[in-house]
Amino acid sequence: xxxxxxxxxxxTDAAPNRPQSKTDLFRSFTWLALQGFGGVLAVVQxxxxxxxxxxxxxxxxxxxxxxxxxxxxNVVNLSxxxxxxxxxxxxxxxxxxxxxxxPLVIVLLLAVLYGSVADSAVAQNALxxxxxxxxxxxxxxxxxxxxxxxxxxxxxxxxxxxxxLTFVAIALLRWPLLWVLLGIGGGACVWAYQVxxxxxxxxx
Length: 204
What we know:
204 residues, mainly alpha, 7 helices, 73% helix, 0% strand, globular, disordered N terminus
């Protein structure tokens, strides 16, 4: 797992806490998964960074970025990364089980119940309301994490410009996600590598 992308002279203190055991991982991610109705990013950030303090904001931003570009659900990828970091493959599997076991049972039960009310106008309007709340949660969490970009090697301005360019590409131009990742994401990686390389050469 690569180190977080921060400026060479930044304070890179590790997170103050860590999971105590694989059982702790399982319980924690089970509880996290049971809260993740729609706005999962907000829940993950609050639980892992603010409450448990297993990660700093900067670590969360970097690890979430990696989880975004990996195949599969973002939060599942992140849980396995954290479990694997502390306890290897058994830890990754414990975190994965925590993320999937209880929600799987609940989703199956809800699917059976929802099938009988799916055509109801009340149920459809309720889901639209949930969608609006989920969008608000994700937006609020994104704004909260902006401060972590101060320690990014590329600088706050470049990071915000890349985020805006990504928004335009996806939301307005409707580019396929793969091309956005390869194009804008690849360009950002190359730029960050050059910045870090120049900084290292200057220090040498």
